Amino acid sequence: MNGMTELQLQLQNVLINVLIGLITVAGTYATLYIKKAVKKAQLEIDKVENEQQRDFMSTALERLDDVTLKAVTKLQETVAKSIRKSIEEGQTPERALSSLAEEAKIEIEHTLEPIYLSALRDQLGDFDTYVKNLIEVKVAEVKNEATTGGTA
Q1: What is the mean pLDDT of the chain?
Q2: pLDDT for 152
């Protein structure tokens, strides 16, 4: 029986490592999409006639980027613990990861100043998809920084 418990623990650890690897791969693919979305957002900002509005939108995008990085960093510190807990509770790993991404999105929406949130929703079109993809990019950045020791 002790051998079975040890085997289950090893399998859980392997599964967690695979899931974290999948997060990194997904983040890499999302990076391409986000770069295109950021470029599109920059083009939209360039269309804004009023320089003050353009500066405001630029600041809003910077705040979104900053808030997203902080939320992802905070959640990344607890991701392995949360995944282990959810697996122990019988949740599927995909569901655990999905709930973490949703938790980050909610935190971002609560942290970002309402005036920026409203402006970004108006200018970006599909704000929710943009934020979800930005979360994936930031997860990859945080993961890459952690594995390279911040030298990237």
Answers
A1: 80
A2: 47
